[in-house]
UniProtKB/TrEMBL annotation:
This is Pyruvate carboxyltransferase. Pfam families: HMGL-like (PF00682). Keywords: Lyase, Metal-binding, Pyruvate. It comes from the Bacteria. Residues 4-272 form the Pyruvate carboxyltransferase domain. The keyword tRNA-binding does not apply. One of its GO terms (molecular function) is metal ion binding.
Length: 300
């Protein structure tokens, strides 16, 4: 592949597990820095209950203040019809619905069974499409679950098939929610998703919890990935899963892509600066490595 979309999820997944709560202005600053660095798809907000995930409060206020450009698409994560109604009112460009692949995690994360999650995602896709919005469904815990253990590839294939039969989204995202995946799983899941959803773009969401996230991302690229999620600075995690830390860092991923001559249109220096700013806002060291080492110097 010669190009891939880098989807910046730092304003959503990067913040949802942090103890420090950023203000609306700080969230808008992070999003603006991503736009200025050349990112053109940004998962900016999550329309979940702020009592459960207080880091995601103020979604409507954030969307009212983000820079609006014709070439920038803002994504809102939604779990149900109420979330979709909020997303439509707030004016996001895309919605990302989520289906958790295992029963216990689904009940802990979304308060519903897997079957109920699939049904809710189908409804969200149908209604969002009617509202003129692009749609993604993310299959979470596709690589493994902290409570149920291994997740069979055939089960993910069936979930994707059910989603496509119900209301085919524009994009299927496969998520390694807890960072347990390896490249062999990426290849198997890509083949399964292609079999169940031929012609539908594949997006991938990796965590580097066990130091396999970047290898997985490059493997997904080899299998034909349309888009790769990453988080500025490598911040992020899931508040409903033990030790689910370490989103792959946007700038570290960008280095690997740039050196592999894969175009994203994103500026590495801009991402490094954004990561340093975010580390200061969160009062935490930046997990990503590129800000410490810098890019490989070009020959004079």
């Amino acid at each position: 592949m010669t190009s891939v979309e880098l989807v910046e999820v730092g304003p959503r997944d990067g913040l949802q597990n942090e103890q420090t709560l950023l203000s609306v202005d700080e969230k808008v600053e992070l999003i603006t820095r991503a736009v200025d660095a050349g990112v053109r798809r940004i998962e900016a907000v999550s329309f979940v209950n702020p009592k459960r995930v207080p880091q995601m409060a103020g979604a409507e206020e954030v969307m009212a203040a983000v820079p609006r450009r014709s070439d920038v698409s803002y994504i809102g994560l939604v779990l149900n019809r109420r979330g979709l109604d909020r997303a439509v009112t707030a004016g996001v460009d895309e919605v990302n619905a989520v289906v958790v692949s295992t029963e216990e995690f689904s009940r802990r994360n979304q308060g519903c069974s897997v079957a109920e999650g699939i049904s809710a995602a189908i409804d969200v896709v149908r209604d969002a499409r009617a509202a003129g919005m692009r749609t993604t469904v993310t299959v979470a815990t596709a690589f493994g679950c902290p409570f149920s253990g291994e997740v069979e590839v055939d089960w993910i294939r069936q979930i994707v098939a059910d989603l496509v039969d119900g209301a085919a989204p524009d994009e299927i995202a496969l998520a390694d929610t807890i960072g347990v995946g390896v490249p062999a799983q990426v290849r198997a899941l890509s083949a399964a998703a292609t079999a169940s959803a031929p012609g539908i773009a594949q997006r991938w969401h990796f965590h580097n919890t066990r130091n396999t996230g970047y290898a997985n991302a490059l493997t997904a690229l080899d299998t034909g990935a349309h888009a790769l999620d990453a988080s500025i600075g490598g911040f992020g995690g899931c508040p409903f899963a033990p030790a689910a830390t370490g989103n792959i860092a946007s700038e570290d991923l960008l280095y690997a892509l740039d050196r592999s001559e894969v175009s994203t249109g994103v500026d590495m220096a801009g991402l490094i600066d954004a990561a340093q700013w975010l580390g200061g806002a969160l009062d935490k060291a930046v997990p990503a490595l590129l800000g410490r080492a810098g890019g490989f110097p070009t020959r004079p």
